[in-house]
Write a structure and sequence with these properties.
Length: 160
């Protein structure tokens, strides 16, 4: 196989294709989520992060094989967000989120998920992935933010 090619489950594609780039960004985010899980002090945060890791493989399955994300899968993430929004305090100003390894890794994962979402949106505009997968990644960045707040509890506010 030519070193400029890689194999998805559905086809040979160039390694620099947008599909591979998007899958790579999701994989990077998954790695940082795993790091955050290892360092998280709260059991509920670790449990949600583990479930997110499993679901990210499902997202990559759509990108690589075309099996679309369902409404039920969107419901799961929206449900987790709703629960956490009721548990964590609402921030009234900008805060520095990175205060320990777990919150720092969550912050990096959130930034990478946002990059993956941008790549996925381009795939969506070109008819290659579903709107649900883009929305799922969008909601994931918010869920990771809420998990950071849950894990860290108190943060330094930034005032201008």
């Amino acid at each position: 196989m030519n070193s400029g090619w890689t194999k998805t489950l559905s086809a040979d594609v160039f390694k620099d294709s947008l599909v591979v780039e998007c899958i790579g960004a999701v994989d990077e985010a998954n790695s940082f989520i795993g790091l955050a899980k290892v360092f998280a002090s709260k059991e509920d945060v670790r449990a949600i992060l583990k479930e997110i890791q499993k679901k990210l493989f499902r997202i990559c399955e759509e990108f690589a094989m075309g099996r679309k994300i369902t409404e039920k899968e969107l419901e799961w993430i929206n449900s987790e967000i709703k629960k956490l929004e009721n548990e964590v305090p609402k921030m009234k100003s900008f805060v520095i989120l990175e205060k320990d390894p777990a919150t720092a890794f969550l912050s990096v994962a959130r930034a990478i998920v946002r990059r993956a979402e941008r790549r996925a949106f381009t795939l969506y505009r070109n008819g290659l992935v579903s709107q649900n997968s883009v929305e799922w990644l969008n909601r994931l960045s918010h869920l990771l933010y809420l998990l950071t707040l849950r894990e860290g509890e108190e943060f330094e506010e930034v005032h201008f």
